Amino acid sequence: MNKKTKITLNLSIIATLLAVSAQFYTNYKINQTLQQFPYYFSDKFIIHVTQPKNTFFSRELVFSLENLQDKDHAKTEIISTKLTALPFAIIANSELPAPLIKQLNEKLNITIDENSIHSKFSVVGNYLQSTMQTKFRDFTNINQVLETNLNFAAKTKFVEIKTALSAFNYNSVTKIGKLTGTYTLEPMGEHRYDLIQANISIDKLNLTDGENNKFDFDKLNYQFDKSFNEQTYNLNLALNYDKFTFSGKQKNFEIQNSTITANQVEIPNYLNFYEKFKQFNEESSLKDLVLTGLDYLFENKQSEWKINAKEWRINDKEMHLSTLKNPSLRLNINNEKKQQAQITSKFTLDSFVTGEHSDKKVQIQDITVENQISELNLSAHLSMLKKYLFDQNNQVPFDTENFFKKDNPAFIEDLTALIQEYHAQNQSKIAVKSIAIDDEFSLKNLNFDYSDKVSSNDQLELKLHFLIDSLELKNENVQFTQLTSTIPINLGPLSTIYPIYYCTNNLFALTCANNIGQNTYDSFISKAITDFHLDIPDAHFSTEMDTLPASQKHPPITASLTASVKAIPNKKRADFLAIGDKLEKTDLSAQLNIPASLIQDMFTDSESESTKLKMQSNAWLSLYHLIKTDNNAINPIFELKDDAYVSEYIQKEGNIQINQKSLEAIRESEVQKGN
Predict the structure, then answer these.
(1) Angle, in degrees to the nearest 10, between helices 409-420 and 378-388
(2) Nearest 5°: phi and psi at 168?
């Protein structure tokens, strides 16, 4: 044997030994991988594997899925695989088992014609790639294709899945256009995975309900993003679509370019809304669904919801078309301190137009509505709902015949404690650039502010302020400019008012109706009427008034008010009589000033344009007759001071005076004038 032959033989032996070693190593890695089964997916499913056949170069594997949500934990064979083990590499060809194909055909109204799964795995590179293609015919007998690609990242152990579906017609009324999706699974410890990202796009989605109402989506996209901490997770959801159309018997509407997002921070890991909703579908546990819904909204540190759209178009059967441009709603909840929670909301709308094809067209421009609640003991209010909304059978009692039947002492005790812990503050703002109703009514730049807070002496301090730049009543030839008012109110005691507020609030009303008797509820109302006191320390109103079109500038109309509605405790009278007693004992001071120049040219020989406009207007005539009688005398409730008609009303300790005169003196004066 020559030297060259020896070298070749030695190399062949070495190569064979390496190949055999590599094959042993490959089989070792296969065995090592199989020993890691079963795998758990988000506590919903377990993936098992069995090995019916095993040789040095090939294996047969069967993967099955165990449903943990099923009472019997039934297993379903999902993939049959033939592995070919090569040195440092593995090739797998798989198929769906015949029983599974039959089951899918029945459930999805399809006929699977062809299915193939090809996988490659490198022992050295430690990568896994798998491609699945399913060809089937849907309900309409149209050929469709579903492709799925799976990639396993060795370093991070993450799994990435991509899917593409040509289309799918489930039946004649449920149709899905082209669908694509990407999904990312994150390892959550040994043998456990959870979905952390998803992005699903559908070209078209057409649905029809049992009443033949149609729901159609164009370019629908759903995004899901989930990140984990030790005890909590963060969740971001987004739903976008180019167009949504609803077609019903009575009404049609269309939404264009809409986005809905929900972002939540630090949700407890035990809270899984999907699982609870699925459980509700199976067991019809309304209580469980409602309580989980409350947890989903509020059991986190912070959350934000947004809804935006480019346009809404609503059309009813009478062809009354309404259009909303760029509506936007945002809700923020800060739950970091649940005894001092803060909830803010903001709604904006560029324009609202309705009645475009009717007799009356309404147009509103640039609407903004903002609200903020702070220092709210959210945990106490949620506790009341969770504890008292449902009866012993876990149902919400809606039978009005059983409302207010019997006192629940525990409920009354908790309601009393809730009142003592109420320290919330509210702030609201409304702004509207313009409102127009045909050619009859026009308003520009409305601003309204409201605030309330609980003071240290069991009172609620409220403040209202509004400003309107201009208001025009075109059919009445009248316009008002710079309408402004400020009204401060002190209301108390809160301990007697809050039970009525709580029991009439839509969110809490059922807890009252099913946990207190009629006598107790009536006593709440009676005590609130007799014991409450209301003070208006200094309210003001002013506006400028003129004809339309404008004729001349007048001094403003002004009004002021101070009032004190006093408590009348220990009064045992019917509620409406108690109200009368309170009004009788109210101290009140009000003053109204109307410039004399506003009506001085009415019922004269003047030929001015201003006079003509006023004499053709019911509003101007009503103002004139408010101030003057039919014989052109000044109404006794007014007197002329410094070029203004002034009416001053004072009520104190049951005595009433108008312009420093008692009602009796005014009557006597009128009688004497008549004589």
Answers:
(1) 170
(2) -160, 120
Please tell me what DSSP assigns to residue 176: E
Beta bridge partners of 349: 367
pLDDT digits (tens, 9 = 90+) for 252-278: 999 999 999 999 999 988 776 656 555
3-state class of 501 per DSSP?
helix
Q: Please give the structure tokens belonging to residue 479.
A: 């316009």
- What count of other Cβ atoms lies within 10 Å of the Cβ of residue 532? 19
Q: What is the bridge-based pairing of β-strands 192-208 and 39-41?
A: parallel
CA 66 to CA 335: how far, in whole Å?
38
Residue with tokens 């809730």: 418
For the four alpha carbons of 378, 380, 381 and 382, in that order, the dihedral sign comes to positive
pLDDT in tens, 526-573: 888 888 899 999 999 999 999 999 888 999 999 999 999 988 876 655
CB distance 259 to 219 below 8 Å? no
CA atoms within 13 A on the CB side of 48: 12
- Amino acid 225 reads D
Residue 25 has pLDDT above 70, yes or no: no
Residue where the block lists tokens 């649940």:
338
Q: What are phi and psi of 415, to 5 degrees?
A: -65, -40
Cα gap 509→514, rounded to integer Å: 9
Distance CA 495, CA 486 (A): 26
Helix/strand/coil percentages in the chain, nearest 5: 25, 50, 25
Is the Cβ–Cβ distance between 271 and 300 less than 8 Å?
no
As a whole number of angstroms, the distance between CA 126 and CA 29 comes to: 10
Lowest-confidence region among 130-139, 279-288, 489-498 = 279-288
Q: Which amino acid is at 604?
A: T
Q: So what's the pLDDT on residue 667?
A: 84
562 and 536 in contact (C-beta within 8 Å)?
yes
Residue 498, judged by CB atoms within 10 A of its CB (0-12, 13-18, 19+), counts as buried
- Give the gyration radius of the chain's Cα atoms: 38
The tokens describing 98, both together, are 């015949």
Q: Quick check: 73 and 45 in contact, CB under 8 A?
A: no
Q: Where residue 621 falls among pLDDT bands split at 50, 70, 90?
A: very high
Residues counted in the chain: 675
Which of the residue ranges 592-606, 628-642, 656-670 would you say has the lowest mean pLDDT?
656-670
- What 8-state DSSP symbol labels residue 628? B
| Calpha distance 606→594 (Å, rounded) | 21
d(CA 391, CA 365): 47
User: C-alpha distances in angstroms, 647 versus 321, 584, 592, 642, 656?
Assistant: 47, 20, 5, 13, 13
DSSP state of 633: P
Q: How far is CA 1 from the centre of its chain?
A: 89
* Tens-place pLDDT, residues 30-83: 445 545 556 566 556 676 666 666 554 456 666 666 766 666 656 666 666 666
Q: What is the DSSP string of 521-588?
A: HHHHHHHHHHH-EEEEEEEEEEEEEEESS-----PPEEEEEEEEE---TT--S-HHHHHHHHHHT-EE
DSSP string computed for 37-70: --EEETTTEEEEEEEEEE-SSEEEEEEEEEETTS
